[in-house]
Amino acid sequence: MLSSLEKKMFFLPNRLFVQGYRLFVSFNIAVIPVDMNVLFIAFHALLPKISRSAVMYVKEITADWNEKSIKNGIFPPCTNTRYLPCYPGQDELIIDITAFNLKWRFKNKENYGIYLKLKTGEAVHFPEDNPPYLIVDTI
Hints:
Elements: E1 7-11, E2 15-19, E3 22-26, E4 38-46, E5 54-60, H1 67-71, E6 82-86, E7 92-96, H2 101-106, E8 114-119, E9 133-138
Antiparallel strand pairs: 1-9, 2-3, 3-8, 4-7, 4-9, 5-6, 5-8
């Protein structure tokens, strides 16, 4: 019976900057009504085509950032790195980021987003025409 109350919410980035194999992104999930419970948050990012196995570095950004600073090589501070494997033929990365729910919803001034870096050993670029997105399961 409860499954009929479950809803999926779709979020596009409120900030996005792509620099080759680096991606900086944030989402505004503070708009989720406070009376809704978040069950799961899935981060989806399309991957560039790779010819061999690679590693995706995933970090939470912990301070404000801007595109001009990043272009000048000044990157925002981030948390510890989470490493995820990526494989040839894999076209999308899906990451469970449910742990950010409370912080990003109720302390939205602390929501600076996520930093991704694809380490492949080859020249790759994140696709700029298909931005990452979130799917949030709520009840």
